[in-house]
Design brief:
Length: about 400
Amino acid sequence: MSKRTKIILALAVVAVVIYFVMGSEQDPITVAAVHPEIRTVEQTVSNTRAGTIDACRRSKMSPAIGGQIAFLHVKEGDLVQKDQVLIELWNKESKARVKETQARVQVSERSAQQVCILSDRAQREAKRKTELLQRGLASEEATETAVSNAESQSAACDAALTQVEANQASVEVVEASLERTMLIAPFNGVIAEIEGELGEYVTPSPVGVATKPTVDLIDSSCIYISAPIDEIDAPEVVSGMTARITMDAFGDQEFPATVRRVAPYVLDLEKQARTVEIEAVFDNPDQTLLPGYSADIEVIIDRVEDTLSIPTQALMRDNFVYVIDAETMTLTKKQIEVGIGNWQHTEVTNGLSIDDQIVLSVDREGVKAGAKVLIEKEEEEESEQTSVSVSIGQ
């Protein structure tokens, strides 16, 4: 190859390089851009896996003894009060025993009343004889007989009263036996489920054998979420912190809540990150919130109001952003100082003003310091222009 040919090839390569360099400089990059804004910024911690909604009090009850269901006083979905009878097993024999012992109490009370009346009379007679003896109007033998009779009648009265107490205790025993044939609500709540029909035979759960409860009672006045958070975030979360709960069943609706418990241990489950279980109660429980819903919790660690902020996606590693020079429409790499933040917004403490325009689409090819850019129009502006064009065309 001649020297002249080599020179021509070298010049051609330089020309191609210059063409592509000049071409890249002349073709601006289209980017999405935003201005910093004044807003409230929060530092939050979220659960690593979906949590579960549950009731603070939930009782899955079965009868204390086996028997046939004689009365179903409630149905699923009913609101019940504490001490309300929910289900009764066949208990006619127990009720008859209650009546029998109550009748015995009445008989013993009448008998005690009679004996005690005689005792009072004997006491008065003994007192009268004693006074007459002191005045020499009664014999000692008659007086002793009256005093002995008074003491005997008093003992009989005490025995009769004791018998009344014994009979009353017997009533309590048979009433307790009768109560074992009933399911009674231990608190106010709603009947979630009933396992059993009228006339069916039910039995209590044997020791060590899990069986379905006869009645599932839920206290819907207190609802909470239990969810795991990453062990790294656990030290920042304490009881009493404000939180927000969201559920797929309610879309974007947020429910205010308060952290009530942070587990004092770390869960180490195989093939999963180590987590700490937290619980948060709803500040305003809603009857429509059903235990069993899947839910997410966001705990507010810190909060700053009316502060300068940027979208977190615009922040690059080492805390810098790309700022657009309005005159030259080129990008400048600018270091900033940041405060608290979350995955949506980050607080800016120094380095930016509300008039600056920063690049939001930092992941686009060619975004770097010195690059020329065009700002893409916002979707709202484009939709407005489209609607105007359609109107004109019509």
